[in-house]
TrEMBL record:
UniProt cross-references to SUPFAM superfamilies, sorted A to Z: PapD-like
Full protein name: MSP domain-containing protein
């Protein structure tokens, strides 16, 4: 809320301020101003604004004009306004101002005029002082025709600002006694001043000037408005009752002529005192009006009737007079006019046919007169100004409603001067709160039916009252013992009174402290500071009584306010509760934890580590509201050792105080400081643009990623420099491949890494002559661009990942190994650096070279190293393992193996191949049958065309092998995390598949998916692997189409053909972009048609003939072959003696382990019954799960796989393969359903699933025609 203060403004003047509005929105706005109906005063506002609506353009400004023009002196004004725009946004404004009256006073308030002789007059002077900065109008309320003994000059006028006017007062004795006269001086918006005049005629000798006691009492009363209005007011207080009162104060004779008969008007005078006095009326000097009798004795409480006659002297004239009543005391010979007792009379001699003139006047205020708020039972007053213009007199008369609460003095009269000041009084007969608005009529001149002016009197009766907290109970926030909770309670004054308010606590337990006395201005809302200081837990309820303190007397309008408070203990939790800080020696570190207030009270906490000074906490001083949390930082300096310490919280009294409560501190968090090291690891890799049948496992082993990760993630310092040898695959010249490494920061601290290339060759710069006198050394080394890392430096935040690219170019035939140095260190601490040297080898193949064979095993001293998997010595059957050779050339390579050295060893060679096709791979199959617990070694010679290589074979026999599987020594990622490196159009959901513990002559399968993320259509074709008497591996469907943005379900099936083995095979999928190929065919067809047209047509002219140039058509190249998808599969086929005690329980689902514990269970089932049960399970349960809306990825794969199983079942029945097809197929389908689908089906909580499994169990146990091992 914006507050604008006008300051102090004098009544009758105005002050203006401007409110500037800036349009900061994105469109033109329309701003509207209106009163705040909830806070605005009820009947009157001295503030005005212009305009009420304005349109403001974008970025432009506008000023609203606010004017403060008070008409009630010595008052405070406060009003509220709201500015709205098109968006409904409100801006609240508060206008505040104070008014002061035109202050004037007399130089003296009483004078004595002593005349020694009756025929002489005496004159004295007084001054009217105007202390305001604006001119002031004044008038003496004295009828010059009825007070001939006292002459005042001037009677009315204007006092300039900050000036004085000298007033001449002359007394000429008329009465032969002492004359006491009270004269009222009226000012616009000013309390009347009182001048007491004591006139003495000493013609009859010296007279004592001592005044009677009741006259002294009247003189001491200086309430100007009340004394002035006491003769016409309808409120008579007991202690201020006048001596005498009239039944009527104003008489209107209307039209009278000289020939009219006497028509007197009667009225009554009553004596209200306990004295007997002689009452006399002053005489009208014009003799137009006459009162009879002129005087009369009035007994205490008695009354007398008088009559008034009107005899106009001239026609077409307005007559007015005011008769003053004088009291002559018999015992003291005093003639007193100490109180206003007057009778106003009005009449005219204009006939109906007389001409008239329009009245020339001005009223201020014009039509609406506002009065101060009335506080019962005291009335309120204001003034009204009637200005006369021209030379003609102006007669006026007020006409009130039948029932009125207002009194006006004078009600009628004739203005011969320049103006007349009218006093308006509000004195409600029934003192009820509310608005008192009345419309009066002011009529001028003699023709009152034609010339009217309507005046509205606006007033209100308001008791002094306030609202505490909008009449609602005061609810303190929940505190804890010893704390202080402060609350700013709003106290609103809805009236226009200035109120002094007092608050008192009815039940004081010394836990509540309030501000007792509050001074509130009209229409103002103030806040009182209340403090709740509990000592123990529990609820606290009390009442606060508020009452108004009036300056003159106490009006106790009590207001009761309920106060509710509660005290509870503080409840804090931290996440995490234990903070593990991994620091690097000599480095500072920062950790954070969340401090959460789970209690119901607001907590003020000071955090500290007690005696441990090496830790800094930010922030230390915390304020937490209920349910809020704050992130706290713990900073440890560089000299921190490995240690444990505790963070404690101390409760404070309040947020602004540093005083801690004498209570047991709260344990906030436990900090464990441990040493750490910069750690990194490679979690995935991908090779772009390769055309051989290498899988991710091959690249993982070639690049020696396991060893590199061991070095990068090692926390032990290495002695000397660490080397990691990495081998790239061999490719023909002018080929390039790109490796993508996904590196993860595993040290929980930000790391900065850098890769620099070292010296790897002996090439030297060549001196080249640039000009005649200038030469330059230029490095023409052809090896420096063969290996390139990008980027070469970067930063990895903790637990974040980044990608590093390695580009290998095959542009040079013989290239020495490249040496790169990889360094990484914590951010800001380069003194703690780890480094490793990467030695990268690669070999290029000549196009004419058809004998080079690649491999992914290690090679030392021109020997292939083949390390077999260890096996137990108690086996009877040898285990076959494979050593793969890859032909990356475009020619067929002849191969022969000399295995004569294997005779008499534990090894043997199975001759299966004699050549390697182009861009393909073949395995060399070796068997191993250990007899002793030792390391077995042997050599085999391989003839690769014209090359001769030797293979070093090693294997170890062991007494016991604890579930050793071949692929476990390789940490290659199995799932398709390629999308975390780079999104490809077509990819497989797996990179590596483990087929564990396949029995001899057994079968196993695996389900995966082929995904197409592009808008192109692909044709895929999977390769098959068939090793005689060993394995048969295939993927179905073998061929097919992959629609845009679709997924194809594939099943890998592996059959054991009789020999135990432990091999790793690669299965490739060739992709053809049908969309690109179709586009190529269309373009090629169009080009051929245009080419034929070009050759068939020629141009003949008169000079020669010519053919159209056919060479303008460019040759359209055939789309390149897509990069194949290669999946590696590790297969372990064990003999029965090894497989007897090896049940791969990890491969089972939780449902299988729960329902089939221990040894395998043998079921005796009937074949035709099983098919019905399978159909019921598949179509009643799995189909319902899919169609019920649960379309998660698992459910979708389950549904697709189930349909695949059904089609596979039908195909095997049709083919009648393998032998005993019904038994084999049913066994396979049951195993697939249980191991793959059932845990998904039962997680859907369908009743049909449970009932189907129950029916399956009962059916399997009830039929005993055939035994099947599940």
């Amino acid at each position: 809320m914006k507050i604008y203060n006008f300051g102090t403004v004098e009544t009758g003047t105005k002050k203006t301020i401007f409110v500037k509005i800036i349009n900061q929105s994105t469109i033109s706005q329309v701003y509207m101003i209106q009163h705040n109906s909830k806070k605005s005063i009820k009947c009157f506002s001295a503030f005005k604004f212009f305009p009420d609506t304005s349109s403001v353009g974008l970025g432009k400004t506008f000023k609203f004009k606010f004017t403060f023009e008070p008409t009630i002196p010595d008052s405070y004004y406060c009003d509220y306004y709201i500015i709205n725009n098109l968006f409904g946004i409100e801006l609240e404004l508060c206008m505040v101002g104070k008014s002061i009256g035109n202050s004037f006073n007399l130089s003296q308030n009483n004078i004595k005029l002593i005349c020694p002789h009756s025929n002489e007059s005496i004159t004295k002077f007084i001054e009217l002082q105007n202390k305001s900065v604006s001119p002031l109008l004044f008038i003496f309320d004295l009828d010059i025709y009825q007070s001939p003994s006292i002459i005042i000059d001037p009677v009315n006028g204007e006092i300039p600002s900050l000036s004085n006017v000298r007033i001449k007062i002359t007394y000429k004795p008329v009465y032969e006694t002492i004359f006491f006269k009270r004269i009222f001086i009226l000012g616009l918006f000013q309390v009347p001043e009182i001048l007491d005049v004591l006139c003495v005629n000493e013609k009859f000798g010296p007279i004592t000037y001592k005044l009677p006691s009741f006259i002294k009492k009247l003189v001491q009363n200086n309430d100007g408005f009340e004394l002035y209005m006491s003769d016409v007011s309808n409120i008579l207080m007991k202690d201020k009752k006048p001596l005498a009162s009239l039944s009527v104060n104003y008489l209107n004779f209307g039209f009278r002529s000289k020939l009219s008969e006497d028509s007197n008007i009667h009225f009554t005078l009553k004596n209200n005192s306990d004295e007997v006095f002689l009452f006399k009326w002053t005489k009208d000097s014009t003799s137009v009006f006459k009162i009879t009798p002129v005087g009369s004795n009035l007994q205490p409480g008695g009354s007398k009737t008088f009559s008034v006659a009107f005899h106009p002297l001239f026609p077409e004239t307005v007559y007015s007079s005011v008769f003053e009543g004088l009291i002559e005391l018999e015992e003291s010979k005093y003639l007193i006019s100490a109180f206003p007792l007057s009778l106003g009379v009005l009449g005219h001699s204009f006939s109906k046919n007389s001409g008239s003139w329009p009245p020339m006047y001005e009223l201020y205020p014009d039509s609406d007169v506002y009065l101060p708020p009335c506080l019962p039972p005291k009335p309120v007053y204001t003034t009204l100004l009637i200005k006369r213009f021209g030379c003609l007199p102006l007669s006026f008369r007020f006409h009130s409603p039948d029932v009125t609460n207002y009194t006006v003095k004078p009600m009628q009269g004739v203005i011969t001067g320049s103006f007349k000041i009218i006093v308006v009084q509000l004195a409600p007969k029934i003192m009820e709160e509310g608005l008192y608005i009345e419309k009066w009529i002011l009529k001028f001149n003699y023709n009152e039916q034609k010339i009217k002016h309507f005046i509205t009197f606006n007033g209100s009766v308001e008791k002094m009252k306030v609202m505490i907290n909008e009449g609602k109970p005061v609810e303190f926030p929940i505190a804890y013992p010893g704390s202080q909770v402060t609350l700013l309670v709003p106290i609103y004054n809805p009236t226009r009174h200035i109120i002094i308010y007092e608050l008192e606590i009815l039940k004081d337990d010394e836990v509540l402290d309030i501000q007792q006395f509050i001074n509130i201005l009209p229409n103002e809302c103030k806040t009182s500071l209340w403090t709740f200081s509990p000592r123990s837990t529990g609820s606290f309820n009390t009442q606060v009584k508020g009452f108004v303190v009036h300056p003159s007397h106490i009006l106790r309008e009590d207001t009761l306010c309920t106060v509710n408070a509660k005290c509870l203990e503080v409840e804090l939790i931290t996440e995490p509760n234990t903070i593990l800080v991994e620091i690097i020696k000599g480095c500072s570190v920062e950790k954070t934890f969340d401090l959460i207030n789970v209690g119901l009270c607001k907590a003020y906490i000071y955090l500290n580590c007690k005696d441990y000074s090496k830790a800094l906490i930010e922030p230390e001083n915390i304020t937490l509201n209920p349910g809020e949390s704050i992130r706290v930082k713990v900073k440890l300096t560089s000299n921190v050792d490995v240690c444990h310490f505790q963070i404690f919280g101390y409760l404070k009294v309040c947020s602004k105080s540093n005083l801690l409560l004498d209570r047991t501190p709260i344990s906030i968090a436990h900090v464990k400081v441990e040493a750490t090291f910069p750690l990194m690891k490679i979690i995935d890799l991908h090779c772009q643009q390769h055309s051989c049948e290498f899988s991710k496992l091959n690249f993982w082993k070639m690049l020696n990623i396991d060893l590199l990760n061991l070095v990068l993630s090692s926390s032990l310092p290495s002695e000397g420099e660490t080397y990691v040898s990495m081998k790239c695959p061999s490719y023909p010249l002018d080929t390039s491949i790109i490796f993508e490494f996904l590196i993860e920061n595993d040290s929980k601290i930000p790391l900065i890494w850098e890769i620099k290339m070292g010296k790897c060759c002996y090439c030297k710069p060549v001196l080249t002559q640039i000009s005649f006198s200038v030469s330059k050394k230029i490095n023409f080394c052809p090896h420096k661009n063969e290996f390139t890392f990008s980027p070469t430096t970067g930063m990895i935040m903790d637990q974040h990942k980044t990608v590093i690219f390695l580009r290998v170019n095959y542009t040079v035939y013989e290239c020495p190994p490249a040496v790169f140095k990889l360094k990484f260190w914590p951010r800001g601490y380069d003194m703690v650096t780890k480094s490793v040297k990467l030695i990268i080898n690669r070999h290029s193949i000549h196009n004419i070279d058809d004998n080079y064979i690649d491999f992914y095993e290690s090679e030392f001293c021109n020997q292939y190293h083949f390390c077999m998997v260890p096996f137990p010595i108690n086996c009877f059957n040898p285990v076959v393992q494979a050593f793969w050779l890859y032909n990356n050339t475009s020619n067929i390579v002849k191969i022969s193996v000399d295995a004569s050295n294997l005779k008499g060893t534990a090894f043997s060679y199975l001759e299966t191949i004699n050549e390697i096709n182009p861009n393909s791979s073949v395995p060399l199959l070796f068997t191993f049958l250990p007899t002793e617990n030792k390391l077995f070694e042997a050599f085999v010679t391989i003839y690769l065309g014209t090359r001769i290589k030797s293979v070093y074979i090693s294997a170890r026999g062991k007494a016991y092998v604890n579930s050793c599987i071949y692929h476990e020594v390789n940490n290659v990622p199995r799932t398709a995390t390629i999308l975390t490196i780079k999104s490809q159009e077509v990819y497989s959901s797996v990179n590596h598949i483990d087929m564990n513990y396949l029995t001899i002559h057994g079968e196993n399968s695996y389900i995966f998916f082929l995904n197409n993320n592009s808008d192109n259509e692909y044709y895929f074709s999977w390769s098959r692997l068939h090793f005689e008497d060993l394995l048969f591996v295939k993927i179905s469907p073998t061929k097919g189409y992959l629609s845009p943005n679709c997924t194809v379900l594939c099943k890998l099936t592996c059959y054991s053909l009789g020999l135990p083995c432990c091999v790793v095979v690669n299965i490739a999928c060739k992709l053809t972009n049908l969309t690109a190929y179709n586009s190529f065919v269309k373009q090629r067809t169009k080009q051929n048609i245009k080419l034929l047209e070009c050759k068939e047509y020629f141009t003949i002219t008169e000079f020669n003939y010519s053919y159209e140039d056919c060479d303008q058509f460019k040759k359209i190249d055939k789309p390149k072959t897509e990069i194949p998808i290669v999946i590696s599969v590790s297969i372990t086929v064990l003999s029965l003696e090894l497989n007897k005690n090896r049940i791969d329980k990890q491969a089972m689902s939780p449902l299988v382990k729960k329902n089939f514990p221990g040894e395998p269970i043998t079921f005796v089932i009937k074949t035709n019954c099983v098919m019905d049960i399978l159909n019921k399970i598949i179509w009643c349960n799995i189909n319902d799960v899919y169609l019920s809306g649960i379309r998660s990825s698992d459910t979708f794969h389950m549904y697709s796989y189930t349909k695949f199983l059904i089609s596979e079942l039908q195909n095997k029945r049709a083919e009648n393969l393998p032998p005993n097809p019904t038994k084999k197929v049913i066994q396979r389908v049951l195993e697939d359903i249980i191991l793959t689908n059932m845990h998904v089906v039962f997680s859907a909580s369908h009743r049909k699933s449970a009932s189907a499994l129950k029916n399956l169990t009962l059916s399997l146990n009830s039929h005993k025609s055939e035994s099947v091992l599940v």
